[in-house]
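Is this the right way to post structure tokens for a design question? Let me know if I should format differently. Anyway, here goes:
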């Protein structure tokens, strides 16, 4: 799936079948369903889920918790605008240079 396809899928009622959990969580986050997104990443291990988990805590405004999850993801703590970070995470996880 390309980033453009992922972005277009935000108009559907649910994320595409077979989407990796971290991407599904990003999908729900962009749709404004923080709780569903958070539940997904809480139940996953690995750096991708930790990266999305960090992003979600930034959305929530919990910088300390976000910093913990950035460390788990082995990523620098983000401090810029949220939308560009969402896009950067999605393109990285999709392997798309959008």
């Amino acid at each position: 799936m390309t980033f453009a396809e992922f972005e277009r899928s935000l108009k559907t009622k649910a994320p595409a079948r077979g989407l990796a959990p971290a991407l599904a969580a990003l999908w729900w986050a962009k749709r404004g369903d923080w709780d569903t997104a958070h539940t997904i990443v809480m139940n996953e291990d690995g750096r991708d889920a930790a990266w999305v988990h960090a992003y979600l805590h930034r959305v929530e405004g919990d910088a300390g918790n976000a910093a913990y999850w950035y460390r788990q993801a082995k990523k620098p703590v983000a401090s810029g605008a949220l939308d560009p970070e969402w896009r950067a995470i999605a393109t990285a996880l999709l392997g798309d240079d959008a």
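Format looks fine. Someone answered above. Worth noting: Helices lie at 3-8, 21-30, 34-42, 47-60, 63-73, 82-94. The chain has one domain: 20-94.
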